[in-house]
Design brief:
- This protein is α+β, with helices and mostly antiparallel strands and about 70 residues long.
- It has two helices and four strands.
- Strands 1-2-3-4 form a four-stranded antiparallel sheet.
- This is DUF397 domain-containing protein.
- It holds the Pfam family DUF397.
């Protein structure tokens, strides 16, 4: 994990797998992927907190797993 340095102006998107309850929300920054080659992921309840920087394949694996659990 790393602080959100350099991500202040990033457009974050809430994962569709987060549901509507608002308690377990994951956000990612798709536009940042092309610029950096990594997928930033954060907890929407803590937007100033740390963000994970995942390799695109790791993010794809995570999303596939989440879809399997739904």
């Amino acid at each position: 994990m790393s602080p959100n340095h350099g991500l202040a102006l990033t457009k974050w998107v809430r994962s569709s797998y987060s549901g509507t309850g608002g308690n377990n929300c994951v956000e990612w920054a798709p536009a940042h992927v092309a610029a950096s080659g990594v997928v930033p992921v954060r907890d929407s309840k803590n937007p100033d907190g740390p963000a994970l920087a995942l390799a695109p394949q790791a993010w794809a694996d995570f999303v596939a797993h989440a879809a399997d659990q739904a």
